[in-house]
TrEMBL record:
<dbReference type="InterPro" id="IPR002616">
    <property type="entry name" value="tRNA_ribo_trans-like"/>
</dbReference>
<keyword id="KW-0808">Transferase</keyword>
<dbReference type="GO" id="GO:0008270">
    <property type="term" value="F:zinc ion binding"/>
</dbReference>
<feature type="binding site">
    <location>
        <position position="193"/>
    </location>
    <ligand>
        <name>substrate</name>
    </ligand>
</feature>
<dbReference type="GO" id="GO:0005737">
    <property type="term" value="C:cytoplasm"/>
</dbReference>
<keyword id="KW-0328">Glycosyltransferase</keyword>
<feature type="binding site">
    <location>
        <position position="125"/>
    </location>
    <ligand>
        <name>substrate</name>
    </ligand>
</feature>
<dbReference type="GO" id="GO:0016763">
    <property type="term" value="F:pentosyltransferase activity"/>
</dbReference>
<dbReference type="InterPro" id="IPR004804">
    <property type="entry name" value="TgtA"/>
</dbReference>
<feature type="active site" description="Nucleophile">
    <location>
        <position position="90"/>
    </location>
</feature>
<feature type="binding site">
    <location>
        <position position="276"/>
    </location>
    <ligand>
        <name>Zn(2+)</name>
    </ligand>
</feature>
<comment type="pathway">
    <text>tRNA modification; archaeosine-tRNA biosynthesis.</text>
</comment>
<comment type="function">
    <text>Exchanges the guanine residue with 7-cyano-7-deazaguanine (preQ0) at position 15 in the dihydrouridine loop (D-loop) of archaeal tRNAs.</text>
</comment>
<protein>
    <recommendedName>
        <fullName>tRNA-guanine(15) transglycosylase</fullName>
        <ecNumber>2.4.2.48</ecNumber>
    </recommendedName>
</protein>
<dbReference type="InterPro" id="IPR036511">
    <property type="entry name" value="TGT-like_sf"/>
</dbReference>
<feature type="binding site">
    <location>
        <position position="281"/>
    </location>
    <ligand>
        <name>Zn(2+)</name>
    </ligand>
</feature>
<keyword id="KW-0479">Metal-binding</keyword>
Length: 482
């Protein structure tokens, strides 16, 4: 069977897509709940009730346990888990990263995944953690690529094959690996060994890893961010082009009596109220949840409800063209996420290449918004304005408009643009009345650029008190300020 990933809607580098597998079509972005074949907090057959379309389990665990292995070989993976939808299987790379070795070869585990009917199989790559020496990262990456190429030769039809992108915390190695794997040709591209970054809240470094790997891939290739299970960072990852996530967090957090929200995590014993409207939370109080004999099960269910609610929210944001607004809201939930947002906008040049040129309304959400790709795109197109004679730049209508050949609207963070475009995206921006320093900085730099591009035009600039900024002094030498 040939993989087919169809992109339906786009916003930033995020997209809604459809991934075709042997057991059905999966709409992305989505989360694959992790199923432990030995311990099932929630039965796989119940996962559709929460919104799960696809599951992920560990083929190495199944392989090692004779009872599970024999049943999977006889009846198939889907019968073993009692789930009729798509199932992805990991290869044991996680165990390799934890214990340093596994009792199976790359060829054995790939062939086993095919025999039990996995929809997406994963070769036995080496998940090189962050901050190792470059020598180690390069050596293990070479082994990973050799194993992936061998796996590609083993799998021709039927099971889709994942090509994990490794390279530790070296962006150039991530890009190099992604580029090499793209030439070989895989069906899904997981970004591996990123859990340590998320566990230590190194979200800015995670941004570097994702974008480096994305640069090496075909933009239309489906991407899986391994081990990303907390909903507070889904929007950020989706905006960077990640399509699939896997989550054991719903169960692991519940075991530790932790209650997930889109803005962070609470310990259930510290909750006085349940800030959620899922079926678990609306039918009981915080005290009842704490004292429930099946508290762990209830927490796991709540955590899943919240997880898939966020996925639906992200999809709606993509459809409406306001994904970056959601990202900026979510990234203000934690200082490290805010650092990641700032880091993402350092790649606005890359992001702008993927961001649709037409959306709904631009919402300015704070200083970080001044670095959005729409503003970069606008600054690059200033030379498209053909001006001559006298031009007025003003923020609000005046009686002297008719005295000028051109009337330009001044609107931070963009700058000056023809008044005829004021209701067209992205100039229909919703922003605060008193702009912050960063938005004025971008706006005035664009005005200076516009004036420089039109040296024969006589500019007059009506500047309101709320637009005070040091760059006005430069403007005084180039335009009449009133």
């Amino acid at each position: 069977m040939t993989s087919r990933f169809e992109i339906l809607h786009k916003d930033a580098a995020g997209r809604i897509g459809k991934l075709t597998t042997a057991h059905g079509v999966v709409e992305t972005p989505t989360v694959m709940p992790v199923i432990n074949p030995n311990i099932q907090t929630i039965k796989p057959s119940e996962m559709r009730d929460f919104g799960a379309q696809m599951l992920i389990t560990n083929s190495y665990i199944i392989y090692r346990k004779e009872e599970l292995r024999e049943k999977a070989l006889k009846d198939g993976l889907h019968s073993l888990l009692d789930f009729d939808g798509p199932i992805m299987t990991d290869s044991g790379s996680f165990q390799l990263s934890v214990y340093g070795e596994v009792e199976v070869s790359n060829e054995q585990i790939v062939e086993f995944q095919q025999k039990i009917g996995s929809d997406i199989g994963v070769p036995l790559d080496i998940p090189t953690p962050p901050n190792v020496t470059r020598e180690q990262a390069e050596s293990e990456l070479e082994t990973t690529i050799q194993r992936l190429k061998a796996a590609r030769d083993l799998v021709k039809d039927g099971m889709l094959l994942a090509g994990p992108v490794q390279g530790s915390s070296y962006p150039d190695l991530r890009e190099q690996c992604a580029s090499t794997l793209s030439k070989v040709g895989f069906d899904v591209y997981p970004f591996g060994a990123v859990v340590p970054l998320m566990e230590t809240y190194r979200y800015a470094d995670l941004v570097d890893v994702i974008i480096a790997a994305k640069k090496g891939l075909d933009p239309s290739a489906p991407v899986h961010l391994f081990g990303a299970g907390h909903p507070m960072m889904f929007a950020l990852a989706v905006s960077l082009g990640c399509d699939l996530f896997d989550s054991a967090a719903y169960a692991l957090y519940a075991k530790d009596r932790r209650y997930i929200t889109t803005t962070g995590t609470y310990h259930v014993d510290k909750l006085q109220y349940l800030p959620c409207s899922c079926p678990i939370c609306v039918s009981r109080t915080a005290e009842q949840l704490k004292k429930a004999s099946n508290c762990q099960d209830l927490l796991a269910r709540h955590n899943l409800y919240v997880t898939f609610e966020e996925i639906r929210h992200i999809k709606q944001s993509i459809k409406e063209g306001n994904l970056l607004e959601l990202v900026e809201q979510r990234c203000r939930a934690h200082p490290r996420l805010l650092s990641a947002l700032k880091q993402m906008y350092r790649y606005s040049d890359w992001l702008e290449q993927h961001d649709p040129a037409s959306k709904s309304t631009f919402f300015y959400c704070g200083p970080e918004s001044s670095k959005r790709p729409e503003i970069l795109r606008f600054s690059r197109r200033l030379d498209r304005f053909s001006l001559k004679g006298k031009a007025l730049i003003r923020a609000s209508p005046t009686r002297i408009d008719s005295e000028f050949d051109h009337v330009l609207i001044f609107r931070p963070p963009f700058g000056a643009f023809p008044q005829e475009l004021s209701e067209i995206y992205p100039f229909n921006t919703e922003s605060v009345h008193n702009p912050d320093y960063e938005s004025l900085e971008e706006a005035y730099m664009n005005v200076l650029e516009l004036i420089g591009l039109n040296p024969h035009v006589e500019f007059t600039f009506m500047i309101a008190d709320r637009f005070e900024h040091p760059l006005i002094e430069k403007l005084k030498h180039l335009a009449t300020i009133i």
